[in-house]
């Protein structure tokens, strides 16, 4: 048998191995063991050097085994029928240029192996244009590496750390000072010399010459000076005494170099010299020069002081000399979290942005750095955080782009002949790969702006893990995919794939992409994606410009709404929740970091793989230790679906546009089985412009109703930071920078200087926030920052079951704890229904300091009572009560407004516009109501012919009374039913009969109710009562949603149905507090102790504050008013007791500081 050695490392060991193997085991066993070596060490490989011929079509088949040993250019390569191509691991780089490589049945292409990674440098360049005349492959297309059925592709480059974190912050424009320090005193007499490299500041050599003691030392000094190469720096300093035996040969050598003093050196003179190219320093004297500073302007530095020397000495009585050399350049040392010794000079890395803009990500070339430790590399840099800031790990990710195996597309200098040229000025027709096994590979300029042509593509491979017979499971590892034109890694109809240690950078379209919906059990582990930009492929890939101008797939004449139909570019796009994301980072996308999206039915080639609605109920895989920052919209979104039908007159939107969807995970994806919580563990989100995370499932109130009634969302044990010490980098757009944070320092802003930053945005529900800390939320004039807030411009609802408990505020003034909104920038007119009905339950009083209280909008008098405490800074009121909701659905017409009045406050109506838009075929109003109260409902048009009232969050026997306004001579048919939203079944439970005695409504029961038609006022009175039990977090009863349906026969030509003038004051009632207000927390809860100094918050809105202040003895009391507080009543008495002037009034902008010990005070 023949053993062919094709590289520099195998010959000797192969020879020795063969001798030992044959001697011990026989020839046949030897051949078998050799096959376990590196692929290019396999016997029977024939060296192959095809040369350079762009017309040469290569076919390797019929058991041909070739080893490519040098660079080549060919038209194409096909490997099939037992053919094998191996790339020789040589000391010289190999570049293979080809239009495509097709690996067919029984064909193999090997570059290294898992056990023997490729060490040399190998590049595949895929060339060609989209308009080439060659016939393209019906499946793979053009410019590809394609693996067909039965083919094998194995590429394994050197193992390198894929990415890590900065461990020390880099500041913009700040250069490192790399110092060398030399210091000597007694016992180091003579002339001390250093030879320094002027480019790096590195000390190349140093020596001491005792020219006091020996003439031989003087001769040695002369030889030393003559040997210094031209262009180097010679720095010399005299320590103690060096003149006694300093001979002429040494003096002449120094004069030749330019010294003006050392040749005249006197006894115990302290003197210095820097040369040979640079002038001598000032002369010494019989005493001592205390210091000399030399700034050397080296070429290529444009006059910047690149090498600085500081030379010091003290008096001759106590000899001491030192030399300090500082190298100052525009390079920096990256302090990294992990060992990066596998990263070499000339490798490229990318450092992620740690500000709001993803475009602050930067590429850097690693420079030589002999002094760097194993976790350091040298680059040029701007601001990137490398530390934990205010409790949040904001370290920038640092990803390696360079690998020793490179596959790249050969690109034209500009875009040509493609519709994509309307959106991109550069060529987007890169290479692509389908189905392979590789690690340690760099992919650059890959992907095409056409479907199915991606840098890495697993297409309809089914189960590629143990379920499919793969052991170990299929993987791609240690890849660098950058500057791509269509995604990074695409998984289509494939399950169980491991994607690990992959860096995706500067990509068009969703980077890590699962396509049709059936993709499950895939694991993305320690993957980094950053600088992910919009693409033309899918509606969800497109930005607003693309969305409006790409009309393919839309119904004729339809113009897309970008925010509704498109604009969802994401780093990780998960079309099925049953995938694992572990230790991944989404460090900058045009829209979102992680987006879980739902395909109601599978699409494309995956059609029919699962029943309708399965993904919406599929439990979530692992989501652990992930992070997202510098994304334009959100760090994470769990919401929405895609349209799985083609455009039609009924729904004109294009196929795969964004639509609504709700997530409600259940065991086995079966909604009739127990719920399975979707858990998000240790997620870090910062510097995302809109939301850190938007999480919305079927367990919350959605567009109309919850799809998974009875479940909830919880946020526990989390830290929210408003404005951290990461102040960002100044940007030209001044509107994005302004004062902020507790220190009011300049900082970058997410959307503008007046954008209302909110920690927890309460929307829909039920939501539970428990044991969370809110840090550094400080409202400013014109910017309503708050720890708790609500969705801006909200048409939906807030559920009264939303609750918070165990909340801690750190560096958050009490005025910034909550903000309910006010008309103005970002909040607009505050006229949307959700803006008016906001509410949440403060279970333990950790927000309001009233345990068990509810916080409601200050002007929502459906929920207020006389004892509610107004909090002007919050635009809220603190109230007590039992609250629920009713959904009022109306038809014929649907475009009307509803006015709801609580009989206790007839002059404080709540006007609702509806949640569904005026063009919808029905309308829905979603007021929150106080239970056991009476209301009336009016309309700004003629009353609707059909009204359905849903009882939401009503417990058994809860009730309200409502009078609906209708025109006179209207006739009614009223029934009750129960609708089960899970089974989609409805059954009638009773009818309502007319009574002429309003009191008889109290005798209603489930099967028979009574309504009272008060025709002179136009009010139809009903008692809305729940008869079924309800689970804790369910909106409806265990049997379904209890409803009352009113069908009205209204006389034609009837006028507006607004009965308030006739109804009041007849039905006005005295306000009554049914649930007493809770007791306020003790005064000790209102202060925080810092270095034994008691600091009360601004609590002017609490009625008990005067009593509390009276007990704050031996403390400093500081009070301030913004104009709405006047000193009167108990306030006057307390302030006088504290020592204020008799006529003092706390109002306007007055400020008071009073020492309670009454030793002194000042106003």
Based on secondary structure, the structural category is mainly beta
* Oligomeric description of these chains: single chain
Beta-strand percentage range: 25-35%
- Mean pLDDT across residues: 84
Unreliable spans: 1-25, 27-35, 276-310, 312-317, 698-707, 1084-1105, 1107-1114, 1122-1127, 1147-1163
Largest sheet report? 13 strands, mixed
Strand runs, count: 81
- Span of the ends, CA to CA: 103 Å
Helical stretch count?
11
Q: Helicity range of the residues?
A: under 10%
Our Rg estimate from Cα atoms comes to: 39 Å
Protein name: Cell migration inducing hyaluronidase 1
Region (Disordered): 721-749
Main location: membrane
Domain G8: 46-168
Question: What is the topology?
Answer:
Elements: H1 11-25, H2 27-34, E1 46-48, E2 57-60, E3 65-68, E4 72-73, E5 76-79, E6 84-87, E7 94-98, E8 100-103, E9 108-111, E10 122-126, E11 144-147, E12 152-156, E13 163-165, E14 177-184, E15 190-196, E16 203-209, H3 215-227, E17 233-239, H4 248-257, E18 272-275, E19 291-296, E20 307-313, E21 321-328, E22 332-335, E23 348-351, E24 362-365, E25 376-379, E26 388-389, E27 392-393, E28 397-400, E29 405-409, E30 432-434, E31 437-439, E32 441-444, E33 456-463, E34 475-477, E35 480-482, E36 489-495, E37 498-500, E38 503-508, E39 512-514, E40 523-525, E41 528-533, H5 544-549, H6 562-565, E42 570-574, E43 580-582, E44 585-586, E45 592-598, H7 614-617, E46 623-624, E47 627-629, E48 634-642, E49 658-659, E50 684-686, E51 691-695, E52 713-716, E53 719-721, E54 737-740, E55 745-748, E56 758-762, E57 767-775, E58 786-790, E59 803-810, H8 833-836, E60 839-842, E61 853-857, E62 869-871, E63 876-879, E64 883-891, E65 898-902, E66 910-912, E67 923-925, E68 928-930, E69 934-939, E70 946-952, E71 959-965, E72 971-980, ...
Parallel strand pairs: 1-3, 2-5, 3-6, 4-7, 5-8, 6-9, 7-10, 8-11, 9-12, 10-29, 11-30, 12-31, 29-32, 31-34, 32-35, 33-36, 34-37, 35-38, 36-39, 37-40, 38-41, 39-42, 40-43, 41-44, 42-45, 43-46, 44-47, 45-48, 47-50, 48-51, 52-57, 53-57, 56-58, 57-59, 59-60, 69-71, 73-74
Antiparallel strand pairs: 13-28, 14-21, 15-16, 15-17, 17-18, 19-20, 20-21, 22-25, 23-24, 23-28, 26-27, 48-49, 54-55, 60-61, 61-63, 62-63, 64-67, 64-68, 64-70, 65-66, 65-69, 70-76, 71-75, 72-73, 72-76, 74-75, 77-78, 79-80, 80-81
């Amino acid at each position: 048998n023949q053993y062919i050695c094709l590289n520099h490392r195998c010959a000797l060991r192969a020879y020795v191995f063969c001798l030992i193997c044959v001697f011990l085991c026989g020839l046949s066993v030897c051949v078998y063991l050799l096959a376990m070596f590196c692929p290019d060490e396999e016997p029977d490989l024939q060296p192959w050097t095809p040369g350079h011929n762009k017309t040469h079509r290569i076919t390797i088949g019929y058991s041909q085994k070739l080893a490519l040993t040098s660079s080549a250019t060919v038209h194409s390569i096909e490997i099939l029928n037992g053919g094998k191509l191996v790339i020789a691991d040589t000391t010289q780089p190999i570049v293979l240029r080809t239009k495509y490589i097709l690996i067919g049945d029984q064909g193999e292409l090997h570059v290294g192996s898992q056990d023997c990674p490729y060490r040399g440098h190998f590049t595949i360049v895929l060339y060609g244009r989209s308009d080439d005349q060659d016939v393209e492959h019906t499946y793979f297309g053009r410019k590809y590496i394609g693996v067909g059925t039965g083919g094998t592709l194995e590429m394994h480059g050197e193992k390198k750390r894929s990415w890590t974190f900065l461990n020390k912050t880099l500041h913009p424009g700040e250069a490192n000072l790399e110092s060398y320090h030399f210091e000597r005193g007694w016992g180091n007499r003579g002339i001390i010399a250093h030879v320094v490299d002027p480019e790096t500041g590195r000390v190349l050599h140093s020596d001491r010459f005792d020219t006091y003691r020996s003439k031989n030392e003087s001769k040695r000094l002369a030889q030393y000076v003559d040997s210094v190469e031209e262009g180097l720096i010679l720095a010399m300093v005299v320590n103690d005494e060096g003149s006694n035996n300093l001979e002429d040969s040494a003096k002449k050598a120094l004069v030749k170099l330019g010294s003006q003093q050392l040749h005249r050196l006197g006894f115990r003179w302290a003197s210095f010299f820097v040369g040979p190219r640079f002038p001598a320093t000032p002369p010494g004297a019989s005493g001592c020069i205390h210091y000399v500073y030399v700034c050397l302007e080296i070429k290529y530095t444009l006059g910047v002081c690149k090498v600085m020397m500081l030379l010091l000495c003290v008096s001759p009585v106590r000899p001491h000399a030192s030399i300090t050399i500082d190298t100052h350049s525009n390079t920096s040392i990256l302090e990294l979290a992990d060992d990066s010794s596998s990263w070499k000079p000339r490798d490229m890395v990318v450092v992620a942005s740690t500000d709001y803009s993803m475009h602050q990500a930067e590429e850097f070339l690693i420079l030589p750095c002999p002094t760097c430790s194993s976790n350091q590399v040298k680059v040029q840099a701007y601001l990137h955080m490398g530390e934990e800031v205010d409790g949040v790990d904001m370290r920038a990710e640092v990803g390696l782009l360079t690998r020793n195996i490179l596959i790249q597309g050969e690109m034209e200098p500009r875009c040509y002949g493609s519709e994509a040229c309307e959106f991109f000025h550069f060529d987007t027709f890169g290479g692509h790969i389908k189905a392979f096994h590789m690690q340690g590979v760099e992919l650059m300029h890959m992907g095409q702006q056409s479907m199915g042509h991606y840098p890495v593509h697993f297409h309809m491979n089914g189960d590629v893990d143990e379920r499919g017979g793969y052991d170990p499971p299929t993987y791609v590892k240690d890849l660098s995919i950058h500057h791509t034109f269509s995604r990074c890694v695409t998984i289509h109809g494939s399950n169980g794939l491991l994607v690990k240690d992959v860096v995706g950078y500067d990509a068009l379209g969703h980077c890590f992409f699962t396509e049709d919906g059936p993709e499950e059990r895939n694991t993305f582990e320690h993957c980094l994606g950053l600088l992910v930009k919009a693409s033309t492929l899918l509606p969800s890939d497109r930005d607003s410009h693309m969305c409006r101008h790409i009309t393919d797939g839309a119904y004729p004449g339809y113009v897309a709404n970008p925010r509704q139909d498109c604009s969802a570019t994401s780093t990780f796009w998960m079309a099925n929740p049953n995938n694992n994301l572990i230790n991944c980072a989404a460090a900058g996308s045009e829209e979102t970091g992680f987006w879980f999206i739902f395909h109601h039915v599978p699409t494309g080639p995956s059609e029919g793989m699962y029943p309708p609605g399965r993904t919406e109920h599929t439990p979530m895989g692992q989501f652990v230790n992930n992070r997202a920052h510098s994304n334009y919209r959100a760090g994470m979104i769990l919401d929405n679906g895609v349209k799985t039908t083609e455009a039609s007159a009924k729904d004109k939107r294009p196929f795969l546009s964004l639509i609504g969807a709700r997530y409600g995970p259940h065991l086995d994806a079966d909604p009739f089985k127990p719920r399975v919580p979707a858990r998000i563990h240790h997620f870090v989100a910062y510097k995302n412009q809109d939301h850190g995370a938007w999480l919305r499932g079927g367990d919350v109130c959605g567009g109309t109703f919850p799809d998974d009634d009875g479940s909830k969302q919880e946020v526990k044990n989390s830290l929210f930071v408003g404005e951290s010490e990461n102040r960002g980098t100044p940007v030209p757009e001044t509107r994005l920078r302004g004062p902020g944070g507790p220190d009011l320092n300049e900082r970058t802003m997410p959307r503008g200087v007046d954008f209302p930053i909110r920690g927890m945005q309460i929307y829909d529900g039920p939501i539970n926030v428990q044991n969370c800390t809110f840090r550094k939320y400080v409202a400013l004039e014109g910017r309503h920052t708050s720890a708790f807030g609500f969705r801006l411009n909200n048409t939906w609802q807030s559920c009264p079951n939303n609750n918070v408990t165990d909340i801690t505020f750190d560096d958050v003034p009490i005025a910034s704890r909550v903000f309910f909104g006010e008309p103005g920038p970002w909040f607009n007119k505050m006229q949307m229904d959700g803006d008016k009905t906001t509410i949440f339950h403060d279970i333990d009083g950790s927000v309001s300091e009233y345990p068990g209280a509810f916080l409601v909008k200050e002007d929502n008098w459906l929920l207020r009572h006389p004892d509610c405490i107004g909090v002007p800074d919050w635009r809220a009121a603190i109230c007590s009560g039992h609250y629920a909701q009713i959904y009022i659905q109306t038809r014929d017409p649907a475009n009307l407004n509803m006015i709801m009045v609580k009989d206790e406050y007839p002059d404080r109506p709540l006007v609702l516009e509806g949640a569904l838009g005026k063009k919808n075929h029905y309308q829905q109003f979603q007021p929150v109501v106080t239970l056991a109260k009476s209301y009336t409902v009016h309309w700004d048009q003629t009353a609707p012919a059909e009204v359905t009232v849903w009882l939401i969050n009503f417990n058994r026997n809860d009730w309200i009374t409502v009078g609906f306004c209708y025109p006179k001579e209207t006739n009614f048919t009223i029934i009750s039913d129960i609708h089960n939203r899970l089974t989609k079944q409805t059954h009638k439970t009773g009818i309502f009969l007319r009574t002429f005695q309003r009191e008889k409504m109290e005798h209603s029961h489930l099967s028979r109710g009574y309504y009272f038609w008060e025709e002179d006022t136009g009010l139809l009175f009903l008692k809305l009562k729940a008869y079924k039990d309800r689970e804790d977090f369910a909106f409806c009863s265990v049997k379904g949603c209890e409803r009352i349906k009113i069908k009205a026969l209204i006389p034609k030509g009837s006028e507006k149905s607004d009965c308030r003038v006739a109804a009041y004051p007849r039905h006005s009632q005295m306000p009554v507090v049914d649930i007493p207000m809770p007791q306020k927390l003790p005064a000790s809860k209102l202060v925080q102790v810092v270095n034994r100094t008691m600091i009360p918050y601004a609590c002017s809105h609490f009625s008990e504050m005067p009593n509390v202040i009276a007990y704050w003895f031996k403390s400093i009391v500081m009070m301030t008013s913004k104009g709405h507080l006047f000193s009167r009543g108990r306030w006057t008495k307390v302030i006088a007791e504290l020592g204020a002037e008799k006529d003092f009034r706390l109002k306007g902008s007055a400020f008071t500081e009073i020492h309670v010990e009454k030793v002194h005070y000042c106003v």
